[in-house]
Amino acid sequence: MLSRRLLLPCVLAVLAACGRDGVAPGPPPQSSTVGAPAASAAAAPADAPSPHPKVVVLGDSLTAGLGLTEAQAYPALLQEKLRAGGYDWDVVNAGVSGDTSAGGLERFDWAMNQPNVRILVLELGANDGLRGLPVAQMQTNLATIIERAQSKHVAVLLAGMEAPPNFGREYTVSFRQVYRDLAKHYKVPLVPFLLDKVAGDPSLNQADGIHPNPQGARIVADTVWAALKPMVDAAGS
Fold first, then answer.
1. N or C: where does the chain have the smaller number of CB atoms within 10 Å of the terminal CB?
2. What is the pLDDT of residues 172-225, one digit of tens each?
3. What residues act catalytically?
4. Torsion of Cα atoms, 100 then 103 then 104 then 105, to 10°
5. Measured in Å, how far apart are the chain's first and last C-alpha atoms?
6. Domain 4-21+50-236 CATH (choose: 1.10.540.10, 3.40.50.150, 3.30.1120.10, 3.40.50.1110)
């Protein structure tokens, strides 16, 4: 069996399929609060917003939960953790398969068009790396998203990704450094690698070897939760 270190470049090299198997280009569908009971959602008026503070998760297919049910995607699992911890918060899954950092920036206003958004989990960049898009442009896109969120007094949690090695070591290192530089410059918490302990492990990924299976998604949720919980606590205080 290949080691996780050897498998990771293979996984990253095919993550671009996130777009080809996902949502077609065009206006994204309206996001909804994940984990909300279907009966309650049906009974509530369409124009009645939840009064709870919200976490919006802006990302690609890893956030959208390609190949999983809505309840198995890591944003829904974050919702479970909030409820289990006694936090009256809602999580909004604003993931769209295939999104680059530019696509996420274009969707920012749509994703944030929710009442009482307190925290933005920003999970973008994997598709930039897979397509070999300029690192400087990705950095500008992510920086703009962070700035626009902070201008709304929304705290940001930045989730990092890794680039495949086929564009050379300089590109890979520069790509990784973008997340660290942004976290330092804007003083936001950083999850260095969203797929830590999951990427490259066949037992934690779907048959495509790309997207986490339900067990893998739970590890991703644990990774994000470790950084998110202190932010929720700080917002509550």
1. C
2. 999 999 999 999 999 999 999 999 999 999 999 999 888 999 999 999 999 999
3. 61, 208, 211
4. 120
5. 48
6. 3.40.50.1110
In sequence order, the 6+-apart residues with CB closer than 8 A to the CB of 129 are 12, 138, 161, 162, 163, 164, 167, 171, 175
| Banded pLDDT at 159 (limits 50, 70, 90) | very high
Under 8 Å between Cβ of 34 and 75: yes
- The number of angstroms, rounded, from the C-alpha of 63 to the middle of its chain's C-alpha atoms is 5
| Chain centroid, CA 159 distance in Å | 7
Nearest-angstrom CA–CA distance, 131 and 163: 9
- With H, G, I as helix, E, B as strand and everything else as coil, classify residue 8: helix
User: In one letter, which amino acid is 132?
Assistant: G
Please report, rounded to a whole number, the percentage of residues in the chain having pLDDT higher than 90.
Answer: 75
Question: Domain limits of the chain?
Answer: 4-21+50-236
Tell me the per-residue pLDDT of 43-92, one tens digit each, with 9 for 90 and over: 333 445 668 999 999 999 999 999 999 999 999 999 999 999 999 999 99
